[in-house]
């Protein structure tokens, strides 16, 4: 079974990817940025296709968000 | 500052105003910062004289640059100041990155051994400048360092430049063939020439504090995103000599710079970092915003820009001073060729090309870091925080965490003037790349380093198996037709008595790094970059490569 990959899939070009992603949002309102992210998720999930990988991705992305926070709060 | 005594260097009335006969220097250098001082030394090593003008009479007030990269140290070695810098500096190569209180990862900048110089040292800019000034004093016949001489005007013609200089004794005019503008980010030469300096300002304020802490703190670079102990966005700590620590606080764009700059409020922040019980003393602090900008061209007729006058970057990545020293390394031997009449002025276009490439690489990397560190919108913050949240579990996300991509030597692969690779596959070092160091022993058996034998003049490095091969090569060196060429023979085991200077590669690291089978030949530029390489010694090919490099032959 294929698993969600954890290693660097950008082959050392991660900084360029990140720059491209931030640039894609430039000039958008917060709502439009949310819409862009939603479309990106749908397109990339379709490209991945594999239902098990998509399920694993959703679980990994959701981790820490259930308390209603962003996952970046300080734990007290 | 408690740990550093500033010395006021003496002002002297220049010959132009004292009534004695002034000599016309080949080169005027404006600015006695790290770049101007290094340029004067590099030119002097080429036998070329200069007058340095500086409007001040002390070294850098407050430290500013502290991180000096391996490539800079190698250039400093070539200039004869590397040892002193490394002896005083704090050597480090491990960086740790935290999110809140959790360590996300650590990086090791120089995992492989067999290099003389470490990945980085931390050394305050005032020490770097002081040691360079001391080295300048070794060349009294060639370098005339003039403190409290402010450049106020510059004119140029096809044959030279005339600078107008203000001193405590009044104004004078100074003629020269060339002028190097090393007068920093606020360059007067740039404004006098009316040149645009365009780029991007980052809307963020940083408080930068140097403190003395007697406790034994780690020497690793430590960076926190959203630290639990400070209200700001990030904190960076570096250790420097004299138990001085540099702490950078990311304050946010709305911070009140004037209030934050007060030593009491800066120290209140510092105490949150180091803990209340730790004894620490204030040294220096300042508040900065940063921008990335560069001149469109660095060569303007007989005026040549180098260092911060030509380009500025944000400091995360330590690319400002390190980039400026690489400018010097690239420029000075080329200017020396032109001054000696061995190349035409058109050769300096290669400086423009190669160092604009270097500046763009530095600007690209430091802009990306700044984007990551200073998210500007809700979604940018979400993306950034998403990366930080995934980093503990996902290697790819750790790769995206960006607290600075630290200065690396710039390579010139595929640039004009480098010849085609005639030894492809021989090793990783291709034409356009800076040479890699490795341990070698000289003919006297003394252990040393390869890079100490390369540079300032062109060098051919030839791998030889025995005395007969070395003798054949020695007989045909003149056929290369390269002025001041040094040919070095690399051997596996000590041969002795070779007709060429011998470097013994007992550990095999030169062979491994240079793909050195017998006969393999590297031609190396005076700035320690591989100009070309061949599978066999070929004097006429070496000669053509050198002339192509100088622009006097076609590739
Ligand atoms: C907070 C901070 C941290 C930094 N950290 C690092 C780091 O870790 N690593 C790194 O590599 N870089 C770092 N930098 C960048 C580094 O300090 C600069 O890139 C470096 O000083 C540039 O050297 P320079 O010689 O080009 O210019 P400068 O050091 O600015 O020197 C210019 C000189 O020209 C003189 N001058 C100016 N105008 C005139 C005139 N009209 N006539 C005569 N003289 C004149 C000035 O007095 C000065 O002495 C940092 C910068 C800052 C602000």
- Backbone shape of chain A: globular
Secondary-structure element pattern of chain A, one letter each: HHH
CATH superfamily of one domain in chain B: FAD/NAD(P)-binding domain
* Count of alpha/pi helices of chain A: 3
Mean pLDDT of chain A: 88
Ligand catalogue = flavin-adenine dinucleotide
Number of strands of chain B: 29
CATH topology of one domain in chain B: FAD/NAD(P)-binding domain
User: What oligomerization state is this entry in?
Assistant: heterodimer
How far is it from the N-terminal to the C-terminal residue of chain B, by CA? 56 Å
Contiguous helical run count of chain B:
15
What's the SSE blueprint?
The complex is a heterodimer of chains A (76) and B (555).
Chain A: H1 14-25, H2 30-48, H3 51-62
Chain B: H1 15-18, E1 27-30, H2 34-45, E2 50-54, E3 67-69, H3 70-79, H4 82-88, E4 90-92, E5 94-99, E6 102-108, E7 120-122, H5 125-136, E8 143-147, E9 150-156, E10 161-167, E11 170-176, E12 178-181, H6 188-192, E13 198-201, E14 206-213, E15 221-225, E16 234-240, E17 244-250, H7 257-260, H8 263-274, E18 280-288, E19 291-294, E20 299-300, E21 303-305, E22 311-312, H9 320-339, H10 349-373, H11 378-390, H12 395-400, E23 439-441, E24 447-449, E25 459-463, H13 467-475, E26 486-491, E27 502-504, H14 509-514, E28 521-524, E29 530-534, H15 539-550
Parallel strand pairs in B: 1-2, 1-12, 2-8, 5-15, 12-21, 25-26, 26-27
Antiparallel strand pairs in B: 3-7, 4-7, 5-6, 9-10, 10-11, 13-19, 14-17, 14-18, 15-16, 16-17, 19-22, 20-21, 23-24, 25-28, 28-29
The structure holds flavin-adenine dinucleotide.
